Amino acid sequence: MPERPRQGLRPAFRRWRARRPFWGGLLLALGGGEILLTEKASLKVVMHIGMQGLAGYLLPTLMVILGLLILFNPSQRLFYSITGVLLALGTWLTSNLGGFFIGLLLGVTGSCLAFGWLPDQEPRVSRRRRRAARAAEQRLGEGAGDLA
Q1: Which of 10, 35, 41, 109 could be a cystine partner for 45, CB 3.0 to 4.6 Å?
Q2: Are 71 and 50 contacting, i.e. CB atoms less than 8 angstroms apart?
């Protein structure tokens, strides 16, 4: 029985990352983590709204969970990303202005990236490559006309 050649960790991670909205989930989770870290700021800086500040901890925790769910269950990315953007916008009121805007922006950006990700999309071809392919086709077409 022939052994399969061992593949490195990096190519395996690239294949895993290509099949899911990696950057969207990562940014959403990082945004929630950043907001949770700003909750530990000094009391002169912290502004809690809600029942004993519970919402200030609940929303960013849910953002981290949704970011991880986007990474590990990409089939439900639309629901997770819509919920994630609503939670990120909700942290504006409950968690120090959304982690002083940084966590809010990370969460909204990550949710938008996850929402817009398409699983079976053809890779984009740069304009330069399209022009080169078009020029090559024209040269081949002109060469075939000379032979006739």
Answers
A1: 41
A2: no
